[in-house]
Fold:
Amino acid sequence: MTAARRAAGAPVPEPALVLARRRLGPLHVCALGTLFEEGSLDALAFLQTDPDGQALERAAAAAGRAVRRFHDAGGSHADLQVKNLLVREEGPRAVCLVIDLDRAERRAEIGAEERMAQLMRLFRSLRKRGMVARVGPRGIARFFAGYCAGDRKLRRALRLHLPRELRRVALHSLHYQAG
Structure:
């Protein structure tokens, strides 16, 4: 999955090796190794460094662009959450990679409903970890601006699914409070 999405233009780590061991009959246990991404932090660790407003907005926009490229390359992430994005600052810009593709799937097309569900899964992970306020409205806006990249049709299509996803956020929030 990682190699195929990378070849399709998705911002994912470069695969270095695959190890497999036969478990039982045709079943195997596999492990994938990727090249180390020097200077990168998962997005949660990046947020915990308390970046200034400009650095945070650059990272949010980079994350939006990365997830969009991943989706456009046919990647459907089963666990898109804040720790599955790697952020690296490169001078005046930020770079983001999508990681942890062990349950990701390749799809011919990722529709607006599935895209929004995955984006809101990412938002719920921020909320669960108490990071929504740190990202703030401007960071969220920069993420969506990076994701939509001026594509008004996509933005409208995503917004159609927002009410359902906000109900899902509210439901999950009850669980976080009870947990």
Q: What stands out?
A: Residues 38-178 form a domain with the Transferase(Phosphotransferase); domain 1 fold (CATH 1.10.510.10). Residues 49 and 102 are 28 Å apart (CA to CA). The chain has a mean pLDDT of 93. The chain has one domain: 38-178.
